Amino acid sequence: MRRANIYYKNLLAGVLTEGDQGYEFYYLPEYIKSTGAKPISLTLPLREEAYRSNVLFPFFDGLIPEGWLLDVALRNTDISILDRMSLLLLCCNDCISAVSVEQVIEEENTNG
Question: Model-level pTM?
Fold first, then answer.
């Protein structure tokens, strides 16, 4: 399972997860309750319930670069063009939009 923190104008807004059942995005309760909270996209309005999809949400897929910039990313990594979550995590940490994506590194439990 891979996770990414989703920021809106440098505020932690939600979490995107890729798992065996597809993708899930949810807004953090403290973000929803914050003054002036805005949705990261018109297609993902603010709500407490998680959004679920079998494919990467079109909004997030649209953040992935295209053309020559995508070619550079693919040429310098071993990521497949079909691995949209990896491309999102690689290329969208500092997007041109108000939204940025930061990979959550899960630490393995070594106790036990």
Answer: 0.87
